[in-house]
User: What shape does this take?
Amino acid sequence: MPPRSPYDDLVHPRTVKKPAPQVEAEKDLVVEDPSSGFVGAVVRCEKDVVHLEDRFGRVKGYPLGPGFWVDGRPVVLVRPKHAAPSGPLRSASGSLYVENARARVARAGRIYVEGKHDAELVEKVWGHDLRIEGVVVEPLHGVDDLPAIVRDFRPMRGRRLGVLVDHLVTGSKESRIAEQITGEHALVVGHPFIDIWQAVKPSVVGITAWPVVPKGEDWKTGVCRRLGWEDDAGYVWAQRILARVSSFTDLEPALLGRVEELIDFVTTD
Assistant: This one.
């Protein structure tokens, strides 16, 4: 055997494989998963998962880390490092964020909203405020049930009741019920939207306007059909609408004012 040369273990610099650079998974960054060929823009990034949406509206979740391409080059996706705010922290509703605050014991007062989606949207934007104030939000299962709920609740001083109703217009059945119930310790307010989906600004969900659905056709079904979205209202709400909402700026002013009014009402002793 010939003696080993000290040059035997040398490697030419061009043959050394460089580690893939780390790239922060910022919203709207276009990423490719080369193993499946799926290409999509980042719509949100959780603790260990990044969610990508392709041009057909399909959303897929992938573990953060290596194995992605950006601009045709391999990268390691990591969570974004958000810059520390220079001013006071703000909650999603725009109020001052109270750090390390424990949730207040729930008040006797309550806010009712018309449906599960309404409750989830209110929680996402006003959740911090509600916990600080000790206000519980519960979903209604139809305005027709409201008179019975009010009778059972028995609003009084220190026990106020606020109700948010969809599409509250003058002369409607809902408006007549609201007039019967509203008093010193109970307040019913409404927004002009057919459904709470409409209270989210169209641009937030990537459309120019919410479709017009003829009267008599189920509104959510009609919206999904006209936009080419999935025939699953729960999935559409969770993935295409609520997931895109990050703060009060994503909502229409006509909803913001009504929710703030109810929170003020039920927290007034």
